[in-house]
Amino acid sequence: MPNRSFSSRQPQPAHFTLLSQNRVYGIFTSLEDVRQCTSRLLALGLKDQAVQIIMGDEGYRAIDAEGHGLWRRFLRLMQGLTDEGSHIGQYARALGNGDIVLSVDLAHAGVSVAAVAQAFRDSHAHFVNHYGPWVVEPLEA
Q: Which of 16, 45, 51, 104 is the most exposed place for a label (fewest CB within 10 A)?
C-alpha cells in the first residue's frame, strides 16, 4: 500500500483542529471502496478539493494523534476529555493497520451531511462521524 496522503490540487488541511470543523471522516478497508465513495461524493456536487484520502505513514502523521507542537499537544489534551480524543486515536490506529481514512470538508459544499453519510455507508465505510462545531455526530446505520 502506498505511503501517501493526498488531495487533488490542494494542500493538506490540518485534521481535528478548531479550524477543521464541519467534516465527515470514515474508515475504509479497500481502495476500491474509497474510489466508489469518492465517485459518489463527486456526483453529489462536491469538488475534488473537499474530498481527501488519508493513508499510510504520511496520513498517520497528518492525523497527528499525539499532538506535535505546544498548541497541538494542548488541543489533543483537551480533546482527550471528549469523544473526539478517542476518535482521533481510532483513526490513527486504522491508518497504522493499513486502512484508509476519507475526509470530506462540508464547510462550503452545499451538500447535506445525510447525503454524504449515505455515500459512505453504500461504499462499506465504518466508524463514520460528522465533526461539527461543538458536536460529534455518529453517522453509521
A: 45
CA distance 118 to 36: 12
pLDDT in tens, 56-95: 999 998 888 787 788 877 777 887 777 888 898 999 999 9
Using only C-alpha atoms, the chain has a radius of gyration, in whole angstroms, of 14
Q: What are phi and psi of 45, to 5 degrees?
A: 110, 5
Joined grid coordinates for residue 35: 474510489
Among the listed residues 61, 56, 48, the one whose alpha carbon sits nearest the alpha carbon of residue 14: 61
How would you label 60-79 residue by residue, b for 16+ Cβ within 10 Å and e otherwise? bebbbbebeeeeeeebbeeb
- 79 contacts 67 by C-beta, under 8 angstroms: no
How much is the average pLDDT of 17-39?
91
Q: Residue 123 corresponds to which amino acid?
A: S
pTM value?
0.84
C-alpha cell at 9: 490540487
C-alpha grid cell for residue 91? 483513526
